[in-house]
Design goal:
CATH topology of the largest domain: Alkaline Phosphatase, subunit A
CATH superfamily of the largest domain: Alkaline Phosphatase, subunit A
Helix content: 25-40%
Shape: elongated
CATH class of the largest domain: Alpha Beta
Radius of gyration: 32 Å
CATH architecture of the largest domain: 3-Layer(aba) Sandwich
Distance between the termini: 96 Å
Strand content: 15-25%
Number of strands: 24
Oligomer: single chain
Strand order of the largest sheet: 15-16-14-13-17-11-18-23-12-24
């Protein structure tokens, strides 16, 4: 008795929903209507598609690729556009579709009409290339699948064994007929109103998965066609369990999958957040100390990614007072770190790339120098290059952020008391051969490790020049350098009766944004957030410390496509490898935290801090 697919459908209704979900790759792309590509076949082939589709018509004894009969043109034959180039590449790759042995290929011929005459002509036209399609000894031969106008399943056996057919879920196939079915597919809209945006409803999701599971139960791959072509749709189709992702944009699909390791992150070890006391939060009392924590490149999407990956908890989100900073530079709405940091360090807008100087290239007085007149000491920390734009704006003045050696020399005229970060060469190999000795004359104690700093006191100034390897990414083993730097700096400067100002930068959130690398961003943001916890703890214990957490700009145009707070998983996409003009949040905790609510220019952060610290006199 014939095995019926209908029985399989009923059985798979009992299968747990989602049990066939799988992780796909670029070779699972199906280049739909491939002949419409600017370069048919080759564009999809070099994008690594595992399935390439060509619609065909029989005209004057030849097969032509076209969507409609009136689109037929003389040079666009199946042989010219598909069979010849495929055979040549097959031979070049060592008698396999791709040089990469893990990649497979099927050629899907969509017969628009008259299969009775088209199939015999197809067999005739592929005869010169039989080693590509019909080689029983070669498991990597190209699979030939016919779709569209097809013979009845009972007639499948009338055709050569190397010809497969595109099955349909609603057809009941016998066991013999299933041998000729190459895959099973159908139009998505026949089963759901889901249009590819968001997620299908739970009942629709279950229905779609049952259809796919039924195909898998008879060992057939599955494809939905007429699907929206977007990363969100591709992700949802993968969850449903489909084997072939239908696309009209093979290169975009390839890029999505090839970069997937950089676009997804699951946090293996969530951490506990600090629970503040809020005793002095929002209090209308003097502000003795300010800790400004700058997550370079940290926008709301980056924070949300960190929140989700840590199972819905962040130290940053313990703050009740939140505002927004407008980040534009003088010469561009998209600021860079130099202009963005200068605005917060000096209280004035400037041009991109300018460090501590106005739009005319004249030095501005930065916050450490202004606060020094009141006896307030300053610490500047970065988990990256200490001569880079954000920390540099607090102690240097230069028209070009790339002038690393000149920026390093700017410390000589600065009132910064503690400086911690990497880039030893800009100090030790500076064109000014006397720089190190002159810094020592300015009472700077030089260290090359954080361990040495543990014995330092506020008697002298501290310059900690770390090896570049000490500020490698968290993913590569940096450890808690940023948190430890803040703890040591707070310990040293808290001995000053007039108070302190500390700026600590989570520099590499920005690096991850420029690299369009979501795991890089999230791991750096978590490191930054753990540093935030130490600042909040100090503020609670001290009672006169204001903590401000913000960014200089957003980097990467990050959007989150798929997330799971329960699993600590985030998946995203980037619109740029550069900065954007999106407003960035400002979180505040401690006395006068409410002063940072609302929306304002980034220069106001400088003026608010200065006013609060000066008001204690």
């Amino acid at each position: 008795m014939k095995n019926k697919l209908l029985l399989t459908l009923l059985i798979t209704c009992l299968v747990k929903v989602g049990s066939f979900a799988q992780t796909l790759n670029g070779n699972r792309g199906h280049s739909h209507n491939d002949y419409n590509q600017q370069i048919p076949f080759l564009q999809a082939y070099y994008a690594g598609m595992g399935s390439i589709e060509a619609d065909v018509f029989l005209f004057n004894g030849k097969l032509y690729v076209a969507h409609n009969r009136e689109d037929i043109s003389e040079e666009r034959t199946l042989d010219n556009l598909y069979l010849k180039p495929l055979a040549a590449l097959f031979k070049k790759s060592g008698n396999r579709p791709y040089a990469d042995t893990s990649l497979r290929l099927q050629l899907v011929i969509d017969i628009k009409e008259d299969h009775e005459h088209v199939i015999p002509e197809l067999i005739k036209e592929i005869n010169p290339y039989m080693q590509v399609f019909n080689d029983p000894s070669n498991k990597r031969a190209v699979k030939l699948v016919l779709s569209g106008d097809m013979p009845a399943p009972a007639k499948f056996d009338n055709y050569p064994s190397y010809i497969y057919f595109d099955g349909r879920p609603e057809i009941t196939y016998s066991a013999d007929e299933l041998k000729h079915v190459g895959m099973i597919s159908n139009e998505l809209s026949l089963y759901t109103k889901w249009n590819g945006k968001g997620t299908p409803t739970p009942p629709d999701m279950e229905k779609l998965q049952r259809i796919v599971n039924a195909a898998h139960a008879v060992h057939k791959s599955f494809r939905f066609w007429a699907t929206q072509d977007s990363p969100n749709t591709w992700i949802e189709l993968e969850k449903i369990g489909v084997d072939w992702i239908n696309t009209d944009h093979p290169q975009q699909l390839h890029d999505f999958f090839i970069n997937r390791a950089k676009l997804e992150y699951t946090n293996p070890a969530p951490y506990q957040v600090y629970k503040p006391t809020y005793k002095s939060d929002g209090a209308n009392k003097k502000v003795k100390n300010v800790i400004l924590l700058i997550g370079d490149g940290m926008g709301l999407a980056q924070i949300q990614a960190g929140l989700t990956a840590n199972r819905g908890q962040l130290n940053i989100y313990q703050c009740h007072n939140i505002g927004f900073s407008q980040t534009r530079a003088s010469n561009s709405d998209n600021t860079d770190s130099a202009a963005g940091a200068t605005a917060m360090a000096c209280g004035e807008k400037t041009n991109n790339r300018y460090i501590g100087e106005d739009t005319q290239g004249k030095p501005l007085v930065n916050l450490p120098d202004k606060l020094a007149t009141d006896g307030i000491k300053t610490g500047i920390i970065s988990c990256g290059d200490i001569t880079d734009a954000t920390p540099a704006a607090y102690y240097a003045h230069n028209i070009d952020r790339e002038s690393s050696q000149e920026i390093a020399a700017g410390l000589l005229t600065s009132h910064v008391d503690v400086l911690i970060g990497s880039n030893q060469k800009s100090f030790f190999n500076n064109a000014d051969k006397n720089l190190i000795s002159d810094l020592k004359t300015k009472h700077y104690q030089l260290y090359t490790s954080l361990a040495d700093l543990k014995t330092a006191t506020s008697k002298d100034k501290q310059l900690v020049l770390l090896k570049d390897s000490d500020t490698r990414p968290v993913m590569n083993g940096r450890g808690d350098m940023l948190k430890e730097s803040l703890l040591q700096t707070m310990r040293i400067l808290s001995a000053n009766k007039q108070g302190f100002f500390i700026m600590a930068e989570g520099a590499q959130i920005d690096y991850g944004g420029h690299a369009n690398n979501l795991p890089y961003i999230v791991t750096e943001l978590h490191d930054f957030d753990k540093t935030v916890a130490e600042a909040l703890k100090f503020a609670d214990e001290d009672g006169e410390t204001l903590v401000i957490i913000t960014a200089d700009h957003e980097t990467g145009g990050l959007s989150l496509l798929d997330v799971s707070t329960e699993k600590g998983m985030v998946s995203g996409s980037f619109s740029t490898n550069d900065h954007t003009s999106i407003n960035v949040p400002v979180f505040a905790y401690g006395p006068h935290a409410q002063d940072f609510n609302g929306t304002y220019q980034n220069t106001e952060i400088f003026h608010k801090i200065l006013a609060l610290m000066s008001a204690k006199k």
